[in-house]
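Researcher: I'm preparing a figure for a lab meeting and need a structural model of a single chain. I don't have an experimental structure, so a prediction will have to do for now. The sequence is pasted below. Please return the structure as tokens so I can convert it later.
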Amino acid sequence: MQKRVGDIEEFKFKSMRKPYSKCLHVSIAISGWLNDQLGETGFWTPWKNLKISDEQYCLMYESQYLLELGRSIDYLLSFAVSLCAQEALKMTVLAGLISAVAWPATLLTMASVLDNPWGVCCRRSAQIGRKLADVLLSRTHGNRPVTLIGLSLGARVVFYCLLELSQRKGSEGIVLDAIMLGAPVSGRASSWSKLARVVGGKIVNGYCSGDWLLKFLYRSTTGHYRIAGLEPVTWRHPRMSNVDLSSIVSGHLDYANKIDDILISLGYADEEVENYGLRRCLSSHGFKEHTEHVLCRSQSMDSFLSISKGGSKSKGIKNIEFKA
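Model: Understood. Here is the structure written out token by token.
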């Protein structure tokens, strides 16, 4: 109970590059959950090649809970791979199992391991968003415009920060652009329309319609049928942009793994980035050895779970797709 209703335990900024002088524009990048491989470095490693401004920070928040969530996701996904591999060997019931309207009962049973840390992190990311709004309103950064960018739960932080700002006086002119990637928030136009008051530039919703993991995580924590990270937000406004990232990412885990490609497509990173391959491990989550006999090294977990008929050498395997 303390995890769900307790106060914020961690909230701090870390500079990602040392500016030569005080810049006219500040950017803040916010990551989602963490894993054991990267630990706290997962707060800034994905944004290494981000080039929004010369003065860039990452927000470090609730690392204990984000790490716990990452471990739960690792456990769930390793189980999902085992399940798919076992059914693939049977060759007879795989299509029916994976393509069924209902989630596989065995996978739903394992979901109890994940629901609690996911719910905790969803609630705390909303709290962090409101706290971030307080910090921005205090204008410790001066009167300079701020660009906010977040992925997964980090996008949820950005969204709730903007919602809080929309309800406060004197919040105009603080946020320049807001970029949310794979956001686990409502996609209703009535919610997003409130952001126009506080965002002076672009409001970007990056989504992937085939993000089965986001569907799975979000299935029991909200009554909303529209999820921003899965589909376009229907709010029509000159500053609102919906970007379909399905050609870049196959699912939720690919956001961190392919963040450079995403940033380049959005115009927030140069096409020539250094050490691109070093961050390919961000979405591997430690189960490469477990899946090596099933998928090649170049495929991510999301790619495996969305294997198309043409991409499989086994005649009995058609589309593998979980549906919420």
